[in-house]
Amino acid sequence: MTDQREAPLIMWTVYSHPSDYPDKFVARKFEIRRGGVTIATSDVRIADTLAKVRTEFIRRGLHPLARSHEDDSQIVETWI
Length: 80
What we know:
- The protein is mainly beta.
- The protein has one domain (9-62, 69-79).
- It is built from 1 helix and 5 strands; from the N terminus they run βββαββ.
- It has a 5-stranded antiparallel β-sheet with strand order 3-2-1-5-4.
- Strand 1 and strand 2 (25-33) form a beta hairpin.
- The N and C termini lie far apart (28 Å).
């Protein structure tokens, strides 16, 4: 029997020096659910450098997506 609930797609969006952490890089976790509903979670990762954020996500086996020209200028990239 198949579970009717589907696990959400998890995405981490990395921001460069956002207003709430102006001296840091911040990765914020989002869940994309059925129908494309996107939920911002309270899960964040904060680092002094972009390299530290990337190292954590590489260790987790995640893959980067380049930012879109339509993204907010503080968005560096997204990891899935």
